[in-house]
Structures are given as C-alpha cells and as structure tokens.
Amino acid sequence: MTTADMKVLDRRALNRALLARQLLLERATLPAAGAVAHLVGMQAQAPNPPYVGLWTRLAGFAVEDLASLVRGRAVVRLVLMRGTIHLVTADDCVALRPVLAGALRQGLKGAFGRKLEGLDLEKVAALGRELLEREPLTLGGLGERLAERWPERDPFALANAVRNLVPLVQVPPRGLWGESGQAAHTTAEAWLGRPLAGQDAPDTMIERYLAAFGPASVKDMQVWSGMTRLAEAVKRLRPRLAVFRDEGGRELFDLPQAPRPGADTPAPVRFLPDFDNILLSHADRSRILTEGQRSRVFTRNGLIRPTFLVDGFVAGMWRLERTRGAAALVLEPFGPLREADREALAEEGGRLLAFAAGPAASHEVRFA
C-alpha cells in the first residue's frame, strides 16, 4: 500500500479514537486495576491525580478502589515512561521496566553525566539496592548514605543514579489519597517478591500503547515512552497493524480491531487531573489541544495543570479552592462556551466536587 492509498484520519477522527481508548466517551465498568492496566499506567507525580483520572473514566469509582490496590501491592509507583513517575500494575512494573532500562540509563547520562563521570555506576547501583532493601529511604536519605562511600560526589546525583539504574518503587503511604511528604523507596523485586521479566523488546509495549493511545506515529510512540529508534520494532509489527495517515501525510499505526468511532460521535464534558497522560503521549497533540492552549496548560516549572474537555477537546482549566467549611471548583475557560456546555460542566463539576472535596459544608462551581 502506498501513502496515497492510506485512509486519512482528520483531527476529529483522531480525537474520537483517543477518547474511546482513554475511556472518556463513556465511563467504563472496569475495576480500577483493569483500567490502570488498559491505560498502560497513569502519570503520577503527585498522589491524587490518578484517583481523579480514574473517577473521570470509571463508573462508580471510589477512593478506596485504588487505595486498597496501593496498600496491597497490586499497583506501584515508579519511574518509567519519559523518566517520570507512573502508577502501574505490579505486572506492568515487572514487564515494562526492563524495556525502558536503556532509556532510563540514557536519561541519567543526560541529566547527571558530569557529576557521575568516572564513577563505577554498577557499584553505586549495587550499594543503593542493598541499602534500600534493608529499609525504605527517601532519595535524600539514600544520597546521604551513598555519600558516606563517595564523599566527593553530589549526593543527589548518586541517589538519582540508583533511581534510574535500579527499579525503585515508592512505598505507602505515598500514593494514598491526600497523603503528602517525601516518598520512601525500596526495590521492585523486594516489594513485589518476584524478579523483573527477562524480555526487553518493545514490541508488546508498542501494541499496548496503541490500544490506549492509537492511532499513532513512530514519533508519537517515542514521545510517550521516552525511547528512541522504535521504527525497527514497528517494522516488525507492521504486517499485523492497520496503517493510516493524518492530514499532514504522516503514517499512523493502529491495532486493526481497536475502536475508531466516527468523527461526529458525541463526546461528553470531562475533567482531567494534573499530568494526565492524554496530554503527554503524542508528538502531535493537536488531536486534543492546540499549541496556544499547551503553553497555558504546561508551566515552565514542569507542572501540567488540570483541564476540562468540551466536545472532546481541551476547553479550559480547573482548580479546587478550599476555605473553612467550603469548597469551590473554579473553571477557567479558554474561550466562550455555549450555555448547554456551561450547564454540563456545572453538573459534572458538582460531581467532581462531591468526589474530591469530601464533606465540605458547601460546594460551589463557578466560572472565572
């Protein structure tokens, strides 16, 4: 098939496909663990965003549905895709970490190469593993212990060397709703009681990505994962993938049986948490937000603000404001909204307040 023969998927078609994969066209009846697995994890720099992300995707989701998984070691928090903290199932921790090991090692070199130059990193990793399997430590505490062995080195760089070279999970209470404080770490093997997988080929990971984020280009896959040179794996997979192109002529790959609803499929208003992966997992994000919106949602210090969707696309940001005995959900639209959309946002926002703000004396949804 030549490029000219491939079906073209426009922006709205790609949007509806993404919403369907992300469980945002209608709330799913999956259990929380099944949803985390389907989404190939959830970006989780802070404890609360994955809870909101599951609330907006699942019917009847409650905080305890995820909290019990964290306490029971069925889901874990660790550095994975793009070198960022993700909440994933225990099975995905075991399967994905070896696939991403090379990218994490390369990321360490880019961030701390000078500070670690000349150091035997395998010795650092081995001592870090020993310390953390003895007792969970914060990165600061780990750095201090490692600096006793290498006093001339930066403790923060030493701790990050272990974090990138050894699979470290954050132990509860980190990852529980409303909990704060520094994260303490141990190794994935010690926490889960089993070794990592021996397979490091990215093929299965790519197919999982397409199920949750496709159709997508090779560059999209690389942006989501933080890996490079995935074209070779896609070439291996190509005989069993569907191939499309976007309006710019780029090749897009997908699973043949994955949902691709029509561009005119109705999309309800939805609230997305901070750092939601739907905004982070493509090189071309135009299927969900514009470049102008991106500059407002993505801050200079690396935060990704919570947003809301209208007709499937980012239409503004939201924040929760609390005072004694009261909670308000403040919506900041990026442009004029139809009255029907304002009403839908107010109704859905009231449900979000009931979930996220708890038993405040009064709840209010207001537009900034």
**Using DSSP, what is the number of strands?**
13
Helix content: 40-55%
Radius of gyration: 21 Å
Distance between the termini: 51 Å
Tell me what you see in this structure.
There is one protein chain. The protein has 368 residues and is α+β, with helices and mostly antiparallel strands. 42% of the residues lie in helices and 17% in strands. It has helices at 11-21, 32-38, 49-55, 63-71, 90-116, 121-134, 139-149, 155-165, 188-192, 203-213, 218-225, 231-237, 291-297, 339-356; strands spanning 8-9, 42-43, 75-79, 85-89, 168-170, 185-187, 242-246, 251-254, 270-272, 307-310, 313-323, 326-333, 362-367. The strands form three sheets. Strands 2-4-3-5-6 form a five-stranded antiparallel β-sheet. The chain has a five-stranded mixed β-sheet with strand order 9-10-11-12-13, with helices on one face. The longest helix is centred in the first third of the chain and has 27 residues, at 90-116. It is globular and about 65 Å long. The N and C termini lie far apart (51 Å). The model has no long low-confidence stretch (mean pLDDT 96).
Label this structure with key terms.
368 residues, alpha+beta, 5-stranded antiparallel β-sheet, 5-stranded mixed β-sheet, 14 helices, 13 strands, globular
Question: Would you spell out the secondary-structure blueprint of this structure?
Answer:
Elements: E1 8-9, H1 11-21, H2 32-38, E2 42-43, H3 49-55, H4 63-71, E3 75-79, E4 85-89, H5 90-116, H6 121-134, H7 139-149, H8 155-165, E5 168-170, E6 185-187, H9 188-192, H10 203-213, H11 218-225, H12 231-237, E7 242-246, E8 251-254, E9 270-272, H13 291-297, E10 307-310, E11 313-323, E12 326-333, H14 339-356, E13 362-367
Parallel strand pairs: 1-7, 12-13
Antiparallel strand pairs: 2-4, 3-4, 3-5, 5-6, 7-8, 9-10, 10-11, 11-12
